């Protein structure tokens, strides 16, 4: 097991947090205040600029619980972690607590993903994987009160535990991941695959077999527990599925989103419109990560490729067909697909110009999209 470069990871984490703070400070003031104005802006105003879109739902659920059936689309663990200290500290604390948990989970994820990436391709691959993750154009969602970083920590932690054959830890982390996002249930597939790879040692004795097989039950248990909670509130075990239509999500064939995207980009949306740019961002993120999954299938451990393929499939079969942008939010969902960042790191090592281009393009887009988010633009 390679030791993580703790100091470098901390510097990367703090530097990228500082970048987002500077974008908030300079961007918000320059775009909202009158020229030559000497009026100060309260600190709480800067903080509240990050309470946008889904963050408002998680904070509301943490404060008041699930009051509307539509809120049940948002899985409970992230809001619960906010609510526990929030109820003690008071209403002022929910947003900063949400952001603190999100950022702390990102920091933990960096250590886990570095370990996975370094084992797959060495120290340089590990360092570049977490660098690209932190400067990715939509990495500002790790700074906001969103559950992306929590799910990233739990899912990557599950896969690392599987790699170490620490079955009970993998099952527990998988349970928590399933309480964070519905996609967490799919961690059962990598678990089964790792069991197959370790079948000789697993079947060596009855005790080992039970210790390896039993923990997988914990992963679906997370979803079962939430289903029971939904039933107690609404009388329906699958309310979290049924309300997806309210959030413009519906089951579709994987190719339907691509067909609609082509029509929207080249026929329905006028050139230079906001919708066209937003559709282009989501479509580019989707296609790029599909390409990285294809490239990475021969570079990564099959378990990681399987996990990446499952995450991609889940977003392709739940496209927002009723919206102008069928891949809405995919530029955020790809943040959870850490194996693709490892593949990108591997590719960039043999292509120095690609690495240099990413070091310019990613931070520039990150600053731009972060500013759009704090200004309340459509960045979900």
TrEMBL record:
<protein>
    <recommendedName>
        <fullName>Glycosyltransferase RgtA/B/C/D-like domain-containing protein</fullName>
    </recommendedName>
</protein>
<keyword id="KW-0328">Glycosyltransferase</keyword>
<comment type="pathway">
    <text>Glycolipid biosynthesis; glycosylphosphatidylinositol-anchor biosynthesis.</text>
</comment>
<feature type="transmembrane region" description="Helical">
    <location>
        <begin position="303"/>
        <end position="321"/>
    </location>
</feature>
<feature type="transmembrane region" description="Helical">
    <location>
        <begin position="9"/>
        <end position="31"/>
    </location>
</feature>
<dbReference type="GO" id="GO:0006506">
    <property type="term" value="P:GPI anchor biosynthetic process"/>
</dbReference>
<dbReference type="GO" id="GO:0016020">
    <property type="term" value="C:membrane"/>
</dbReference>
<keyword id="KW-0256">Endoplasmic reticulum</keyword>
<dbReference type="InterPro" id="IPR007315">
    <property type="entry name" value="PIG-V/Gpi18"/>
</dbReference>
<dbReference type="Pfam" id="PF04188">
    <property type="entry name" value="Mannosyl_trans2"/>
</dbReference>
<feature type="transmembrane region" description="Helical">
    <location>
        <begin position="333"/>
        <end position="350"/>
    </location>
</feature>
<feature type="transmembrane region" description="Helical">
    <location>
        <begin position="357"/>
        <end position="376"/>
    </location>
</feature>
<keyword id="KW-0472">Membrane</keyword>
<keyword id="KW-0337">GPI-anchor biosynthesis</keyword>
<dbReference type="GO" id="GO:0031501">
    <property type="term" value="C:mannosyltransferase complex"/>
</dbReference>
<feature type="transmembrane region" description="Helical">
    <location>
        <begin position="129"/>
        <end position="147"/>
    </location>
</feature>
<feature type="transmembrane region" description="Helical">
    <location>
        <begin position="68"/>
        <end position="88"/>
    </location>
</feature>
<feature type="transmembrane region" description="Helical">
    <location>
        <begin position="167"/>
        <end position="189"/>
    </location>
</feature>
<keyword id="KW-0812">Transmembrane</keyword>
<feature type="transmembrane region" description="Helical">
    <location>
        <begin position="210"/>
        <end position="229"/>
    </location>
</feature>
<feature type="transmembrane region" description="Helical">
    <location>
        <begin position="94"/>
        <end position="117"/>
    </location>
</feature>
<keyword id="KW-1133">Transmembrane helix</keyword>
<dbReference type="GO" id="GO:0000009">
    <property type="term" value="F:alpha-1,6-mannosyltransferase activity"/>
</dbReference>
<dbReference type="GO" id="GO:0004376">
    <property type="term" value="F:GPI mannosyltransferase activity"/>
</dbReference>
<keyword id="KW-0808">Transferase</keyword>
